[in-house]
Amino acid sequence: MSDKINKHDKVKIPEVVFLDSHTLSLNNDLDFSNIDKICNLKKLELLDDDTVLDCCMNAEIIIVNKLILDKKIISSLKDLRLICVIATGYNNIDIKAAKEKNIEVVNVPGYAKYSVSQHVFAMVLNLATKMYLYNEDVRKGQWEKSKDFGLLKYYTFELAQKIIGIIGFGAIGQNVARIAEGFDMKVMVYDVSSNIKSNYKVYPLNQVLSNADVITIHCPLTDNTRNLINKDTFELMKHSAILINTSRGGIVNEEDLLEALNSGRIAGAGIDVLSQEPPSAGNKLLHKAKNLIVTPHTAWSSREARQRMIDITADNINAYLNGKIINSVF
User: Where does residue 330 rank: exposed (0-12), middle (13-18), buried (19+ CB within 10 A)?
Assistant: First the structure.
């Protein structure tokens, strides 16, 4: 199909439905013009998947961030030809069902490599310097009561010459490695894929976990990576190790993380993701874990990264309209 689409020719302009557009835009701060100019874009704010069918019966293309598209939904949408996941992870899509119906599924790889990487090091530095604890103590008036000029209370450490273990070496993992070298850290890499192209040596997972001072997760959630970090793998880690997860919550077993933190098995953790989002009010990890920093799945969310998601999605749609598929997850 030609990319020169007449905006007044309703036959040739595909209907595109963005199911959960509210998950992306903050006070309408994003520019959708690159998508608007090539299709009829309908932006919805669906909170659950119960109303998807009613809204998308004639849609050729669906854009989705976090809503679940299961087999029932995918099988019922007769005109659907392309699912654009406006994220890197796509565990909310029934890929098998899409393949069975010859529906293409594409994503936006690498859009948040700068945003997530800086979030990783914000957490690492916070935990390494105990900034979160010192800030709390100062606000409680403990500095005012100190006998000395400062308040020396917690052990802190430098990143220089420490080992960072990177689990998953896609665009984000590679950018994390580049930043780590700026701190004069040593890099160890593990990747679930055996054919990654890297200038770094790839090590077995057990070796990375047992040697790393900082462990940061950047792999997708799959059947192979679910509960990848669990009681057994925590036992391999140094007692001084810090764990960071900005990928997907299901990769780390949360009960085992709670035990590892509260028993002193590891020194601290920073997480941006949970297995259930939003979490339940009684989430034990959030309310009972020691030395844990939590952010509400926002590592990806800089304005630049969110705009990049839209622009890459526009490229994905435009490629499809011209008979090509880019950024396929298959």
Answer: exposed
